[in-house]
Amino acid sequence: MNQSVSSRSSRPVAIWLLVGVGMIIIQVLLGGITRITGSGLSITEWKPIMGALPPMNDHDWNSAFEKYKQIAQFKYLNSYFTLHDFKFIFFWEWFHRLWARLIGVVFVIPFVVFIFQKRFKREMIRPMLILFLLGAVQGLVGWVMVLSGLEDSDALYVSHYKLAIHFVLALGLLCYTLWFALKLLVPETQKVVSRPLKKFTIWITALLVVQLIYGAFMAGLKAASAAPTWPRINESWIPENLGMSGGHQFPGLSFLTDNPLMVQFIHRSLAYVITLLIFMWYWKARAIMVPGIFKKTKWLPLAIVLVQVALGILTVLYSLQQDYFLWLAMAHQFVAMLLLLSLVWMIFIIRHNKNPEIS
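Predicted structure:
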């Protein structure tokens, strides 16, 4: 009886967390749209409260536009912009920030309600604090990223390194929120035991994180257009002079992260490796015949990665056609998050040992 009451008291918290998962996914997608449309530097001030409202009259719009005209992106890239053009990029950055504020509201209000309802158990306190801390850090890093693009007199876009950090932190928040929800929803009896498969899953996930970082580099450097061909990369399987681009020699190992062509080459290569590893993972997972959630969901990583590869190919092929590219890139990013979450789910559902206390 007590166990039933405990389960009921935690379920609203788990649903609340899953709503957060969905909202974070949308926020990441909005961030992708912001990047592709070049909207990230359109708002030159950080006003956490007053900034929730867009300019409300012509005077405010002209004032915001004048501030944008002072940064390098306008001077060297968008000097032809009219106020109408500016409003377009302003909208996406404003909506991105507005959605972040909405996530904060959706987290804070139920949090206070759940405190009064005494739904939080003692073991939930630390994860809850970590969750709020991750959210706050993510917002701060986002502004630091934008600020770097505003203050650099030569910056046309924000640094792809800072973009990658912002992206990975968002994914960390996403995965942690899902993990927290799963701990409240999935009983230990539903888990399966396979130490080798769990280790293999963790290694694949780690490699996927590297791949996602290179995905952020792809977006930050606009690297898809460096080789809009497939299966070859500009008519070559392995392009020559990967340490150079446009006659520019990259010092040291920077060509691995700064050269758009090399970034795309690594991103493609990792995609093939991860797909092969997930095929191997599925083959191993088939041997686990225990009935339950794992048996019903073990096909997910393989199905998702195949869709992801197809979307990746299409995104590269249409990278020079902006209308198609935007939505293909967003679909590619969305499925990448689903793939990551499917692997996190597998890490959660597979135990090292039969005793859950030492798993």
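Summary: The chain has two domains: 1-185, 190-245+252-359.
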